[in-house]
From TrEMBL:
Its EC number is 2.7.13.3. It holds the Pfam family HATPase_c. This is histidine kinase. Residues 408-639 form the Histidine kinase domain. Keywords: Coiled coil, Kinase, Membrane, Phosphoprotein, Transferase, Transmembrane, Transmembrane helix. It catalyses: ATP + protein L-histidine = ADP + protein N-phospho-L-histidine. The chain crosses the membrane at residues 12-34, 279-299. PROSITE patterns: HIS_KIN. One of its GO terms (molecular function) is phosphorelay sensor kinase activity. InterPro entries: HATPase_C_sf, HATPase_dom, His_kinase_dom, HisK_dim/P_dom, Sig_transdc_His_kin-like_C. Residues 48-75, 333-378 form a coiled coil. The lineage of its organism: Bacteria, Pseudomonadati, Pseudomonadota, Betaproteobacteria, Rhodocyclales. It comes from the Bacteria.
Amino acid sequence: MKRADWHLHGALIVLLCVASATSFLLAGGLLLLWRLPQISADTRAALIADAHEVAMRAEEQLRAQNIQLELLARMLIESPAGLPDAVLSQAVTRGGFSAVYLVSADGRVGQAAVSSTLGVARARELVGNDLSASPLFLRLRREARLSWSDKYVSPVSNRVAVGIGVPAGDAVLIGEVALAGIARWAEVSGSGKQLWIADSRGELLADSEDAERVGVFSLANQPLFVRVLQQGGPQVGHMSLEKQDFDAAVVRSSLLNWYFVARSAGGWRNPRARTAFEYAFLGLGFSLGLALLLAPWWATQMARPICQISARAGAVARGDKVQPWPRSGIAEIDELSNRLAAMDEAIRAREHELRELNAGLELRVQQRTEELAGANAELSGSLLRLHQAQDELVRAEKLAALGAMVAGLAHELNTPVGNSLMATSTLRDALLAFRECVTRGVRRSELNEFLAAADTGTDIALRNLQRAAELVSSFKQVAADQASSQHRAFMLDEMVAEVALTVRPLLRKHGVVLEIDVPAQIRMESYPGPLGQVLTNLLVNTTMHAFAGREGGLVVVSALPAEAGRVCIEVRDDGVGIAAELLPRIFDPFVTTRLGSGGTGLGLHIVHNIVVQVLGGSVGVQSTPGEGTVFVLELPTTVQASPQADMP
């Protein structure tokens, strides 16, 4: 995919905006990295102070209830007859208790007062109840001092509450405080802060943010609360609630044995941290806005001279007339403009030189073109004469092969024709003698002698004439096939026999024995004339070259069916062989060992062309000097007729 190119003006705007934003981000990031730890430290210090303040205010609020309950206990000790119910009721009404009751030494409620919301009947029902198993009662009996309880289920309201108890002689005076009242204290004491109040076990007594967490949420598993239990003293750190992190401070009230937790949103949710980030993003936005306002103007000022230089360079590339090169007041751009101006002058000087050189070159090219045209015409004529000479040599080679066959045939015909002439001459002499006998009278013995002589002469003449007719017919068929190159069906063994009949006289003249080993069942649809010419050329070539300097030899023509639809023909001799340096180019034109002795070197080249181009096969040669040569023809048994090959 091709990458999109930037325009200089746009690239400079983006560069300036990115540089401005990057600078502000780096500065703002460093400022935040420096400021956020301070905010965290300040927040934690403020949380510890808030927790201390809440604990002190809660102690002040609850200390009044402690004093009121201690006064009631002192009155009980001084009045053996007990306190009037009105006094207990007043303590409930004005002291902030939800219930106040007196428990005897055996754990039974002897006297009780409850808030108006629970009703007077509930106070009467409470009298006589056994609270000997109450944890607060047992602690007061054990420690005999004022104590605040942890969260428990009130026996009065059956709701979660906390209690305060003081010894009153053998009895115990207990006052209950509803958790709703403690939550109100937390709201008032915390002045809107997020506060928790937990008992000694970490059970939540009040939550300034969500009252529904009371009785459900516990701080016992919070690492910060565990650290306070283990190490004591105020502790500050992190707490997690409902998948949110808080910065928190925990302070223990020794008076109440409760824990006061002040918390604030941690990390990015911290209001002061969020404010710092808001200021940072506002600064970033202002910086980007200012950059977007100034960047186009600055980019235009920077890009204008470069664009002008680019336009001048384009004019130079097109060959137009160039106006003065621009200046910008920036050293690098002015340097570029100066160098381009120098390059423009150098280009124009070089163009002038090239025009002069080009004019001279055109004149020289014209002269050389005329010389080459003359040389080309001369070469064309020479090539035409070469092709004509090559065609003449090929024709001469064919005629030489045909002449060799004619010479051999003439030599072979001499015997049967001579025998026939002798037989007819003898028959004519016998006829003349028989005529003389007829004039003087023929005897039976003379007649029989004449008939025997006539029968013998005619038989000799007939057999020799038939032999001559066979030679002429074979030569006629071979000559007709080679002359016409017609496509027809033929039996390979018959065609080879006809060729052998025509060339055997030539071979016999040189003392060469020809053997044929071709099966009778090989039928071909091809060109018998070109195939016969190939075999004739190979046999004549063998006679001329294979047995040079030797008396006779053996040539074997054999054929075997090859793979489907093909036949392999071999022409093997036991002659002198072919030299190793000639073997790779034996089928090239004008390659011969008898150059200057009548050999043209085209015989095997013609064989190769006919086999490949007409017969559609291949020809190869294997030879070992001193042991003989084998020419191997691989031909298809069926060749499609070619109009060019069928032309007579």
